[in-house]
Amino acid sequence: MILKCIRTVALAALALVSVNVSGQDLLARQAPIDRKLKAVDSLALIRQIKAEKSVYPAYSLYPNWSNERVHAYGNTVNVPDSFRIDLTGFCMPTTHTQITSKCGPRWRRMHNGLDIKVYIGDTIRAAFDGRVRMVKYERRGYGKYVVIRHDNGLETIYGHLSKQIVKEDEYVKAGDPIGLGGNTGRSTGSHLHFETRFLGEVINPEFLFDFPKQDIVADNYLFVRGANRYDYQRKRLDVALKEAKAESVSSKDKATSQKQAGNSIRYHKIRKGDTLGRISRIYHVPIDRLCKMNGIKRNTVLRIGQVLRCS
C-alpha cells in the first residue's frame, strides 16, 4: 500500500515537470513568432503612413483632412515662423489677365484673394498638383467653389464658378480643368475669386502669380508668418532681409580683417600719456606679453617717440 502511494506521488511530480518543460518549450517557440508579428505590424504601419502621405498632400504640415470647412484649422495648426514654398510646376488658373479687385480691405470687410475677370463658361484650371479637398456651394459667399491642397503646402480656392467638374478627394495635376467661370454666390459680375493660403493663413496671390505676364513671380516664395497679405509688409520684410544680409556680410568682412590684422605684426609709437596698461587695452595684448616682445619690464619708463611691437 505504501509502495503504491509512493508510485502515485512520483508519477504526479513527473507529470508536473513535463508540463512545465513543455510550456517553456512552447513559449520559446512562440517568441520568434511574436517578434515576426511585431515586425509585420511595424511594416504595415509604415506602409499605411506612406499611403496616407501619398493620398493627402503636405501630410506632414497639416493636422487633418476635412471636407467640411474652407478655414478648418484655426489654432489647431502650428504655423512656422518661415517656410519656403516651391512654385515650380505651376499653371495659371486662367488665361485672363485683368484683376478687378485686389487682396485687402474692401467694403468694410477683408477680401482674402484676387478677383480676375473671366466670363461664364471659361475654363478654370488647377494651379499646382494636388488633391481636391472641397467641392461645395455657398450662397452668400464663394458660390460654387473648389478647394485644392497642393503638394507644396499651399491651398488654393476657386470661387463663383458656374460649374464644378471635379469631385472631392480627386487627385488633379497642374493645368487640369476643375471648373467653369461664373457668377454664383456673393458676386456682382462674372469673375474668378482666387485665394492662396498656407496652413490657413492668407497669402496675397500677387506675391506668387503675375497675372499680366501669366507667370509666377519667382521659383519659390518665402512665407513669413504675419507678412503675406499687404505690400508694405513684404517691403518691410525685404528691407529687413537686405539689412540683415548686409550686416552679416559686414560682420564677416570685419572678422576677416581683424583676423588678417591679428596675423600681421603691429607697432605702436609712444605718445604723451601712454602707459603699458593703455597700450595693452588698445591692442588686446597682455602687459607681460608686451614686455616679453619688446625686452622691457613693467616698471620700464616709456619715452615719447619710442616704438613698441604689439603683436
Summary keywords:
single chain, about 300 residues, alpha+beta, Glucose Permease (Domain IIA), Membrane-bound Lytic Murein Transglycosylase D, Chain A, 3 domains, eight-stranded antiparallel sheet, three-stranded antiparallel sheet, 4 helices
Report on the architecture of this protein.
It is a single chain. The chain is of the alpha+beta class and 311 residues long. It has three domains: 74-229, Glucose Permease (Domain IIA) (Distorted Sandwich); 230-263; 267-309, Membrane-bound Lytic Murein Transglycosylase D, Chain A (Roll). 33% of the residues lie in helices and 26% in strands. The protein contains four helices and 19 strands. The strands form six sheets. Strands 2, 5, 7, 8, 9, 11, 13 and 14 form an eight-stranded antiparallel beta sheet that branches. Strands 6-12-10 form a three-stranded antiparallel beta sheet, with no helix packed on it. A two-stranded antiparallel sheet has the order 1-17. The longest helix is centred in the N-terminal third of the chain and has 54 residues, at 2-55. The radius of gyration is 37 Å and the shape is elongated. The protein starts with a helix and ends with a strand.
